[in-house]
Every structure is written in C-alpha cells, then in structure tokens.
Queue: 3 jobs
Job 1
Amino acid sequence: MRFRACIALLLFLSACASSTPPPSVRGTRNPRLANLQRAARLPWTDGGRCVVREASQPWPVLVEQCYRALDHDRIEFHDTTGRCSVASAGAGAMGIGLCVLVAPEIVVGAVIVLGVVVAAVAIKEELDAYELRHAYPEEAGTSRGAKVSSREAEAQRKPKLKPEPAGQDWQPPVPPVPVDRTGRASCEPVPVPHAGEDDPHNECADKFPPNRYPGMDVVIGGVRFDALQVGVRVLWEIKTHRFDTYNDFIRRQEIAKELEQIEREQDAAAACGYGYVIGVSTHAHKDALLRANRFLNVVVTGCKR
C-alpha cells in the first residue's frame, strides 16, 4: 500500500511540474512521438515493446508501467535536487528512479546510463514508421474508407474496356517514393494503405507473415508489396484466390499473369536485399506456381475467402 501511495504521489507531483515541457520535446505536437523520442535515450530489456504499447499515455504513466523493463544494470538515478527524497521513504531506490524519470526536465547528472544507448528495436521501428508517414502524409489516409489520394479518382475517370479485377488483383500505381543519389527508387520501406477493399486478403496479409505495418502495404524499390514481415527483411505477396474452383483455362491464365507480377517483385526485393515469399491459400495454387517455376518460395497460408 505504501508503495502504491508513493507512486500516486510521484505522478501527482510530476503532473504539477509538467506545465513546462523539456527543451527536447518543445514544439513536438504529437505526445506519442515525444514519449518515444525520450524513451529512445534509455536502455530497455524488452526491446522497447512496453514503451511502444504505452507511448500514447502521459509520460509519467508510461514510466510507471514500463519502469521494470528498464535495464537497471546500466542505469543509475541520483536525486541531485533533493526533491525526490519523499519517494525514497516509501519505495526506496525505485521511488527515486521513478521520481527522477517523471520530472519534466532531467537535471544533469540525475540519470547516468552506462555504455552507448542504441534505440530499442520496437521504438526505432515505431519512430521510423512515423518518419515515413510524416514524409508522405497523402498516403497515410484519414480512415480505412477514406479516399487517400487523387490517384483513385484518376483511375475512376479512365474508360473501362473490360471489368475491373476484384480486390487483390487490382494493382494501383505505386505512390511517390524517395530516390537515392543515383535517381533510382529508394530501398527504404514506405508504408501505404492496403490497395483495394478486399478485407479477407488484407487480413491475411496483416496476420500471416505477420505484417510489420498492420493495415498497410509497403513500397520498396518503387514496387508495392502486401507485407513486410516483422523482425526480418522478408517481403510478401499474398494470394487468396479460390484457385481450386477455376477451370484449367482460367488457371493457366491466372498463373501466367501472376508470374509477371512475381518476377517484377522478386527483382525489386533482391535489388534491395530482401527475401521474397508468395503466400497462397491452397496447395493446388502452390503446386501450379511451382510447376511454372520450381525456384519460387511459396507458402500455403490457409487463409479463407
């Protein structure tokens, strides 16, 4: 009870003191971003997952929730101002550490980190994703059903000579991507909203690899992919066709079309140093692709339509 009362007191004191934000986050409009940037300077034992999960909370709440995930072997707290002595009476060293961390401005010498701090993996990925979304706001969209750019309106104005393929088959023009100094498309991943309104396909792309950017495709090397797998440099093309229901003629047509797309995506992935996997719903679809090219990396996802 004394410990919880101490925590509540620390949060209250920090809230009263937080009217003036620290210089490092002044002018940062997004509190979540400010929390991630602040947390990136500390060592974490869980790869920063707790911080990413709690980043939308006020900083004192994040500190309380994630304090135990800090690498305490590499960090020392010093009550250089004496204002945290009240915490030490109820919670010992942990109370001092919490009090020091929730302060709106960290006094020089109050937090000492041993060794070089490299931003935790989960925090870095979140910051990178924010940077990319900020660099290309027109691709972020405001909601799942919103019109994310004028590209779709342009596509609708074009005369339709034949029926549009449904959902996953429709490949819109790729969005603008950064280029390197040679003028070639950059290998930096750019998250963009999933193409089309094929919910079963998009759900499979998010959950099966699983997708590093849920709800988003990713553009790499100027080519659009359904997913970038979490934790590894592997790009995915997801197919959820009901391939088993097609007749032989349609199957041949479908495989020929897919091989053109796969070749383009494979080349872009390889040029940027990424692996490439095709996920299909059925063994019949996998077998048909491997008969056409036995060197493909094809996985049966079992995703249903």
Job 2
Amino acid sequence: MTHRDKWLVFAPAGLVTVGLGTCLVQWAADKKRNGHSTSEWVAAGTAALVVFNAGLSLFGRGVAESVLYQLKEKPREMDYGNVGRL
C-alpha cells in the first residue's frame, strides 16, 4: 500500500471510531444515570474510552501517512534548485 492509500484508509476509519467511542461514552454515562451497578457502567465506560482512544490513534496514523505522502510521493510542484529563477 502506498502512503496515500494508507492515509485514505486510516483517517476516515479513525474519525468513525472516534464517533463510535463518543457515543459509547454517552451510553456508559446513561447507565450510571439510570442506576445500573457500578461494575456495569465502569466496564462500559472503560470500553468506550478504549474505542475512543483507538480512534484517535487511527486518525493520528492517517495524519502521519498524509504527511509522508506529501513528502515522498506527491510530485513536487517546485524545483528547489531553481528558486529565484523565473
């Protein structure tokens, strides 16, 4: 896979996973609010935070792949050896 392909996979997957983790945090908070047992809402909250942080990691990897793509694969628009010459 090229850096571009990895970027196009990791960034959207990260955003979707962050959204899922956010929804799960709300779900865990709702469990606490509705009086479920402590172990139940703590376990749900822990799982939600794991999903949320995994999403941040995936998105961060997507950003890193985007930078690598821009540095290594994207054709250079300007030849730095000809700076100043028009």
Job 3
Amino acid sequence: MNVFIAGGTSGIGYALARHYLQKGYDVGICGRNPEKIPENRHENLKPFRADVCDIDSIAAALNSFTTGKNSLDIFINCAGSYAEDVAGKISYEEAEEMLQTNILGTVNCFEAARKAMKGQNKGSIAVIASVSGILEYENSSLYTKTKRSVIQIADAYRRALSPFGISVTAIAPGYVDTEKLRQLNNNDLGKKPFLTDIETAVAIISEAIERKEKLIIFPIKMKWMMKSLSLLPSPLLNIIMYRKAKWMKDDRP
C-alpha cells in the first residue's frame, strides 16, 4: 500500500504517517519545513518539501513518490492554517494564510490526488477539516468558514470521483492534543472540552478512511454538542459562540 500525506511533517499528519509505517506501508509526506521530521526516520518514509498553496510543488512531490509504484492507495491532506479571529482581531497576512492554505490548498491537494489516481478505479482521498465547520451562522470566524468550505469541497469531489472508484472522506475532529494546540494555548488545555489524545484520533481517522466514510465527526460528545447547537436560531447561536470564544481567550466583552 502507498500512502501520501500533505502536511505530514508534524501533528496529526506525522502521527498518521507513523501509523501506516507500522502497518508496513510505503509513506510519503510533505510540508514546507521537512526539517521538523525526527532524524530517526523509518526507511519506508519518503519526505518532500512542498507547499499545498502551490499545486506544481504538490504535484511534483506526489509524482516523485509514485514513480515506479503501481498505484496511489491513500492521499490525506492534513495541512491547515489557524489564526484567532475573535472580534475581528486578525491581520491581513493571517487571513490570507488561512484562505490560501485551507481553501486553495484543499483544492490543490484534491486535484493532485485525483490526477495521480486517474485510471486506477480505486483509491481513497481524505482531508482534515474541523468540527467547527459543522456550524453555519453569520458571525462565525474566518477559520470556521474556511473549514466549512473544506467539508463542502470534499462533498463536491466525492460526488465527482465516486463513479471512478475513488472515495472521499472528510474528517471533522474536535480538539486533538497536538504540540501545535499546546503552543497556541501556552500549554494550557483546560478550556478545551472533550480533548482527544493523538493516538485515539489516528485510530478514528484511519478506520474512517478504510471504511470509506463520507464524513466523520469526533469525539462523539463534541459531535452531538455541535449538532444540538446547529438547531438554534442563528442570532442566538451568534451570541453563544461569540461569548464562548471570548471565554476561551480570557477576553472581556
């Protein structure tokens, strides 16, 4: 089995790479900074420098990985960008980075994977979104809107690629205990409800891909909380989510 993971040099992406390596698969990973990968790499791990915002670099890395292989079995896009967007506190550069990585990068990865799997009549493509993308309300953050877009983009590609034997799985996790999450919160995750350890997240994600699930939301408590919130009128949901974001950042109205 051949697996390629964009955004695979750290966090969930690298944890998934280790999971597939333990199963004996050949794994390619790419990121903007492959130097982050630990030095004691597995012999079946092939790292590449590539940026999901540049479709040519993603395509080149994927082509290098698949050269001489019979097929590309799994492609997972774990690349993502986050910046705090409470009360409009976001710079132009942060907004641009989120739009480029989370939306354009998602499309670029689907295109590169689609072309690599063309003619195989099989293959699985997965993308990491966010449980926040489940909710639709007027004043949701830019991050939430981009992750909602990721889910919708995945849905469009699923519909287009299904006749050709290619499955598409959108992953919408809640808070996963990664180094990045700890960095963003000064190592204090006390206000992150239903926190999932990374080993559990990897098990859920890999199983969802194997089962060709359309959309997987986890953990289950977060899923039902979001489903319940989605039933509220938009004005009330706006107020609740804004106050929740303020509380989590220790801001004051």
